[in-house]
Amino acid sequence: MLGRLVPRDEQFFELFNQLSEHLATTARMLDELFGDPDAVAEHVRKIKDVEHKADLLTATVNQRIDKSFITPIDREDIHTLASRLDDVIDLLDGTARRFQMLHIREVLPAARQLTNVLMRAASEIQRAVVEMRRPKAVNQHVVAIKQLEEEGDAIYHEAVGALFSGNPNPLDVIKWKEMYDTLEGAIDSCMGVAQVLQSISLKNA
Fold first, then answer.
1. What per-residue string of b and e applies to 15-33 under the rule 16 or more CB within 10 Å gives b?
2. How far apart are CA 109 and CA 180, in angstroms?
3. Strand, helix or coil for residue 161
4. Run of H or E residues at 142
């Protein structure tokens, strides 16, 4: 009865859409950075700007949880999804800053493959968020993200193995092992977001 008298705060869905858009934008920018290492400072700055917007948006979500009398989904789920989306954006921002910190000038092909996987995973997340009230649609995106995670794992393992073959430059091994680990971790985190989305959509079907 109370739920019919007091409207639910549906604005959370729009905030999720904005957060997932920031994620997709950040992933695209990271891919552009890896394709244009000479302009690293500019790319890092642009990524940081989006990351800052995402932080503010996440804070808005958390404040709205406290102020809303009735939420469209569980408060804990709202907090978890917003935090997971923001965490991936933070990881991408950290990847960009690490790229700059390690003074990378030439990008290995496997790294571009991994940023491409990340970009596609972020795009799937964005579409899943838009359709989060449709469990079947969300599940399709989750399946696609899982396939991308597996693709990323295969690229990662082959790339790390290649680093240690022959007589590698130890400095290059250190740099690229660090970058590969970071990229692979970000892809895994995308899968974490997908699992949260799947759980929420099923609970609220």
1. bbebbbbbbbbbbbbbbbb
2. 11
3. helix
4. helix 135-163
In SS3 terms, 162-201 reads as HHCCCCCCHHHHHHHHHHHHHHHHHHHHHHHHHHHHHHHH
CB atoms inside a 10 Å sphere around CB 3: 8
Q: Is 74 helix (H, G, I), strand (E, B) or coil?
A: coil
Structure tokens at 201: 């959509």
The continuous run of DSSP H or E covering 205 comes out as none
Residue 6 CB partners (closer than 8 Å, separation 6+): 69, 70
Q: What is the pLDDT along the chain (205 residues), one digit of tens a residue?
A: 333 433 455 788 899 999 999 999 999 999 999 999 999 999 999 999 999 999 999 999 988 887 776 777 788 988 999 999 999 999 999 999 999 999 999 999 999 999 999 999 999 999 999 998 899 999 999 999 999 999 999 999 999 999 998 888 999 999 999 999 999 999 999 999 999 999 998 887 6
What is the dihedral angle through the alpha carbons of 78, 84, 89, 95, rounded to the nearest 10 degrees?
A: 170
Closest CA to 134 of 69, 54, 186, 201: 201
Alpha carbon of 200 to those of 35, 111, 135, 138, 204: distances in Å?
36, 33, 9, 10, 6
Read off the pLDDT of residues 42-68 as tens digits, 9 standing for 90 and up: 999 999 999 999 999 999 998 888 777
Q: Is 124 exposed, middle or buried (0-12, 13-18, 19+ CB in 10 A)?
A: buried
